[in-house]
TrEMBL record, chain A:
Keywords: DNA replication, Nucleus. This is Replication factor C subunit 3. GO terms for molecular function: DNA binding; DNA clamp loader activity. GO terms for biological process: DNA repair; DNA strand elongation involved in DNA replication. It comes from the Eukaryota. It comes from Galleria mellonella. Subunit of the replication factor C (RFC) complex which acts during elongation of primed DNA templates by DNA polymerases delta and epsilon, and is necessary for ATP-dependent loading of proliferating cell nuclear antigen (PCNA) onto primed DNA.
Automatic annotation (TrEMBL), chain B:
The gene is LOC113522710. One of its GO terms (biological process) is DNA repair. Residues 1-33 are annotated as: Disordered. It comes from the Eukaryota. GO terms for cellular component: DNA replication factor C complex; nucleus. This is Replication factor C subunit 4. The keyword ATP-binding applies. PANTHER family: REPLICATION FACTOR C / DNA POLYMERASE III GAMMA-TAU SUBUNIT (PTHR11669), REPLICATION FACTOR C SUBUNIT 4 (PTHR11669:SF20). Pfam families: AAA, RCF1-5-like_lid, Rep_fac_C. The lineage of its organism: Eukaryota, Metazoa, Ecdysozoa, Arthropoda, Hexapoda. Gene3D superfamilies: 1.10.8.60, 1.20.272.10, P-loop containing nucleotide triphosphate hydrolases (3.40.50.300). The keyword Acetylation does not apply. It comes from Galleria mellonella (Greater wax moth).
C-alpha cells in the first residue's frame, strides 16, 4: 500500500490545492505553442515535482504517467564508465545529475544531445519537443552549468529543459536569463492544514482542526513532511484526537539533544561526546547544513543579543568553510568548540558581574 | 532509456552537429522570442558599433583578424559572430565554420586533433558553383573562459600555425580567464551592456511584431531596470510575463525575473532584534526568494538610503560583500542572511 503522500498526489493542474493562480497561468502557458525552458525553484516539500508532473500531463496527456526506471551508462573523456538512474516516459526523461558528482557535465551533455536528436513521434496533436528534467541544478558543478548555456539555445527546437532547484542563488545568471523562472513558495500553515483535511476526508478519517493545525505548524511549511506526520499520527493512535502527540522527526530531537549537551558543560570531554553525536547525525544522512542551522537555532536561545550576533557570525564562517572543504565533521566540530569557548567566557563574565 | 530514444529516428538532415550552423530554411517550430529575434544580419545588432564596423569591412572583402569578444551575458556576442558567419559563407557555412562551446569536449586532445584537423583542410576562394567566397575557415570557440589553461596553450600553437587558412573567434564573459598569449593575438572587442534607449527601442519593435500591447512604455522601462543591459534577460522576462499573465505588467516582470519586492528589502534593512530576524529569514527562504538577489538589491538600497549614517553604510556594505562571496562559494543562505542580519541589527542600534 502506498503512502498518503503518493496516493493523494494531485495529477491535474486544476486539482492542485494551493497557488491556484499559478496553476491557471501554467495552463495558459501550455496552450501557447512556444513553450520555453523552465527553471522551477522553491523549498523542499513545496510541491515542485507534483506541479511539474501535472504540467507534463497537460502537455502530453496521460502517457507521461507510464514511467519506467532504467540505468544508463555514460563514458567520461577519461574513459571511465559511470552509471546513473533515470526515470522516463515516451515524452520525457528525468535524472539527478548530482548523483555522479563531478561527472555531471558528461551526463547532461550526452543526455540532452541524445534526446534532441531523436524525433518526436509525429501523430497529430503531439509536441515537437521532448522534455528533460534535471533535479537539484543548484548543486551542479560550475562546469556543468556553463555547458548548459549554449546547449539550451542550440537544441531548443527539439528539446526543452525543466530545471529544478531549491534556490536560484547558486544558478549562474547566464542560465537564469535563458529560462522562464517559476517561483514556488512553500504552502502556508493554513494551506497545509486544509490539505490535511482533504486527504483525511479521502481516507474517510476524521481529523480535529486543532491537530491539523499543530501538525502544520511543526512541519516547517513542508507539505510532504506534514502528510507523513499525519499518517504517522494515525498509525500511533486512532481515532485521532485534538491533543494527541505529534511525532517529530528523530533527527530534530537529536539535534536539540546535542545542543543541550553543548550547553550543559564546556570542556574537551564534552566536545568528544558531541563529536560522537555529530557523527551519528551525518551517518544517518542528515545534511550537514541542516545540522548547522539546527544547532545555531538551538544554541542562541540562551544568549543575549551581542552574543547571538557573535555566534551567528561564527556559524556563517564555519559553514562557508565546510562548503570549501570536504569533511563536514571538522567544521561542525570547530564551530562547536568555538561556541563553547565564547559561551564559557560569557558565563564566567556574567557570574563575575553578579558578585 | 533505449525505448525512449527509439520512439523516433534520427533524421540525417536535421541532426544538429557541432561542425556547422543550421542553415535550413524549412519551417521552424515556434521558438522562444530570444531565438526568434536573434539578429539575422550584423546590421540587426543593437549597439556595439565598433565590432559591427569591423565585421562589415570583412563582409565587403576585407581580411578578418582573429577575434576575441568579451562582455556580460546577453549583449550579442554569440549573435554577432553567428550572423557574420552566415553572411560570409552563406550556404557553405556548414563546411567552413566549426563551432565549439562549453558543452563540447574541449580538452587538449580535442584542440590538438579536431581543431587542428579542421584548420588544416585547405579551402579555395570560390564556391562549388564558382561564386567567390572568403579564402579561409572560421573556428568559433564560444564560452572560451571555461576552457582549461592547458587547452588554451595548445590552441595558441594551432592559431599561430594555421593563420593562413583559418580565423579564430573566441567568446567569453571574463577576459581575464584567457591566457595572455592568446589575447595578444586577437583583436579584442568589449561588448558593453546595452544602452537603455536602444534596449527599449528593440523591445518595442519586438513587442509590436508579436502584437503585444505595452502601453506608454513604463513597463519597458521597468524591464530594462530589472535586466541591467542584458537584452536576453529582458526578452525572456517579457515573453514569460506575456505567456503567464496574458499581459505585461510591472508586477509581473518583478515576479518572473525573481526580484525581491522592495518592501521586503526594507524590512530586512530595518530588523531590530534577533527573533525578528529569525522570523524574517525563515519566511524569506520559505517564499523561495534568492539570498544573492536580496544582497544585490540591498547594497543598491543601502548606498542611497537617506536614513543611514556613513558609518552604518560602511559596516553593512562590508559585511554584505563578505556574505555575498560566501554565497557564491555555496554557503547556506540561512547562515549568511542571519550573519548579515546581525550586523544590520548592531549597526541600527549604533548610528
Ligand atoms: N546587441 C544585440 N542586438 C540585438 N539583439 C541582441 C543583442 N544582444 C542580445 N540580443 C538578444 O539576446 C539574445 C542572446 O544574445 P547572445 O546569445 O548573442 O548573447 P551572448 O552575448 O552570447 O550571451 P552569453 O554570454 O550568455 O553567451 C539574442 O538572441 C538576441 O535576441
Ligand atoms: Mg553566447
Amino acid at each position: 500500500m502506498s503512502l498518503w503522500v503518493d496516493k493523494h498526489r494531485p495529477r491535474d493542474l486544476m486539482k492542485l490545492d494551493f497557488h491556484k493562480d499559478q496553476a491557471i497561468r501554467l495552463k495558459n502557458l501550455v496552450q501557447q505553442s512556444d513553450f520555453p525552458h523552465l527553471l522551477v525553484y522553491g523549498p523542499s516539500g513545496a510541491g515542485k515535482k507534483t506541479r511539474i508532473m501535472c504540467l507534463l500531463r497537460e502537455l502530453y496527456g496521460s502517457g507521461v504517467e507510464r514511467l519506467r526506471q532504467e540505468t544508463m551508462t555514460f563514458t567520461t573523456p577519461s574513459n571511465k564508465k559511470i552509471e546513473i538512474m533515470t526515470v522516463s516516459s515516451n515524452y520525457h526523461i528525468e535524472v539527478n545529475p548530482t548523483d555522479v558528482g563531478i561527472h555531471d557535465r558528461v551526463v547532461i551533455m550526452d543526455l540532452v544531445k541524445n534526446v534532441a536528436q531523436t524525433h518526436q513521434i509525429d501523430s497529430s496533436g503531439q509536441r515537437e519537443f521532448k522534455v528533460v528534467i534535471l533535479n537539484e541544478v543548484d548543486d551542479l558543478t560550475k562546469d556543468a552549468q556553463h555547458a548548459l548555456r549554449r546547449t539550451m539555445e542550440k537544441y531548443v527546437a527539439t528539446c526543452r529543459l525543466i530545471l529544478i532547484a531549491n534556490s536560484i542563488s547558486r544558478v549562474i545568471p547566464a542560465i537564469r536569463s535563458r529560462c522562464l523562472t517559476i517561483r514556488i513558495p512553500a504552502p502556508t500553515e493554513t494551506e497545509i492544514a486544509s490539505v490535511l483535511h482533504l486527504v483525511c476526508k479521502k481516507e474517510s478519517i476524521n481529523i480535529p482542526s486543532d491537530l491539523a493545525m499543530r501538525i502544520a505548524r511543526s512541519a516547517d511549511r513542508n507539505l510532504r513532511r506534514a502528510l507523513l506526520m499525519c499518517e504517522a499520527c494515525k498509525v500511533q493512535q486512532y481515532p485521532l484526537t485534538a491533543d494527541q502527540k505529534v511525532p517529530e522527526p528523530d533527527w530534530q530531537i537529536f539535534i536539540r539533544d546535542t545542543a543541550s549537551t553543548i550547553l550543559s558543560e564546556q570542556s574537551p570531554k564534552k566536545l568528544g561526546e558531541v563529536r560522537q553525536k555529530l557523527y551519528e547525525l551525518i551517518i544517518h544522512g542528515v545534511p550537514p547544513d541542516m545540522i548547522f542551522a539546527g544547532l545555531l537555532k538551538e544554541l542562541v536561545k540562551n544568549c543575549d543579543m551581542a552574543m547571538k550576533c557573535q555566534v551567528a557570525s561564527h556559524a556563517a564562517r564555519f559553514e562557508h568553510r565546510m562548503r570549501l572543504g570536504n569533511k563536514p565533521i571538522f567544521h561542525l566540530e570547530a564551530f562547536v568548540a568555538k561556541f563553547m569557548a565564547v559561551y564559557k567566557k560569557f558565563m564566567e563574565e556574567s557570574l563575575g558581574d553578579a558578585f | 532509456m533505449q525505448a525512449f530514444l527509439k520512439t523516433g529516428k534520427i533524421s540525417a538532415t536535421d541532426k544538429p552537429s557541432s561542425s556547422g550552423i543550421k542553415t535550413s530554411t524549412k519551417k521552424k517550430p515556434p521558438a522562444p522570442w530570444v531565438e526568434k529575434y536573434r539578429p539575422k544580419t550584423i546590421d540587426d545588432i543593437v549597439d556595439q558599433g565598433e565590432v559591427v564596423q569591423v565585421l562589415r569591412e570583412c563582409l565587403s572583402g576585407g581580411d578578418l583578424p582573429h577575434l576575441l569578444f568579451y562582455g556580460p551575458p546577453g549583449t550579442g556576442k554569440t549573435s554577432a559572430i553567428l550572423a557574420a558567419a552566415r553572411q560570409l559563407f552563406g550556404d557553405i557555412t556548414r563546411d567552413r565554420v566549426l563551432e565549439l562551446n562549453a558543452s563540447d569536449e574541449r580538452g587538449i586532445q580535442v584542440v590538438r586533433d579536431k581543431v587542428k584537423a579542421f584548420a588544416q583542410l585547405t579551402v579555395s576562394a570560390t564556391r562549388l558553383d564558382g561564386r567567390p567566397c572568403p579564402p579561409y575557415k572560421l573556428v568559433i570557440l564560444d564560452e572560451a573562459d571555461s576552457m582549461t589553461t592547458a587547452a588554451q596553450a595548445a590552441l595558441r600553437r594551432t592559431m599561430e600555425r594555421e593563420t593562413r587558412t583559418t580565423r579564430f573567434c573566441l567568446i567569453c564573459n571574463y577576459v581575464s580567464r584567457i591566457i595572455p598569449p592568446i589575447t595578444s593575438r586577437c583583436s579584442k572587442f568589449r561588448f558593453k551592456p546595452l544602452a537603455r534607449e536602444n534596449v527599449i527601442k528593440r523591445l518595442r519593435e519586438i513587442c509590436e511584431a508579436e502584437g503585444v500591447d505595452v502601453g506608454e512604455g513604463d513597463v519597458l522601462h521597468q524591464a530594462v531596470d530589472t535586466c541591467e543591459g542584458d537584452l536576453r534577460r529582458a526578452l525572456t522576462a517579457l515573453q514569460c510575463c506575456q505567456r503567464l499573465l496574458g499581459k505585461i505588467t510591472a508586477d509581473g516582470l518583478i515576479e518572473v525575473t525573481g526580484l525581491v519586492p522592495e518592501n521586503t528589502v526594507n524590512e530586512y534593512l530595518s530588523v531590530k532584534n534577533y527573533s525578528e530576524l529569525e522570523k524574517f529569514v525563515d519566511k524569506f527562504l520559505m517564499d523561495a526568494y534568492s539570498a544573492s538577489q536580496l544582497l544585490e538589491q540591498l547594497s543598491a538600497t543601502v548606498v542611497t538610503a537617506g536614513h543611514l549614517t556613513n558609518k552604518q553604510k560602511c559596516v553593512i556594505s562590508e559585511k554584505a560583500a563578505v556574505c555575498s562571496h560566501r554565497l557564491l562559494d555555496g554557503g547556506a543562505e540561512f547562515m549568511q542572511l542571519t550573519d548579515l542580519g546581525c550586523t544590520i541589527i548592531t549597526a541600527n542600534n549604533d548610528p
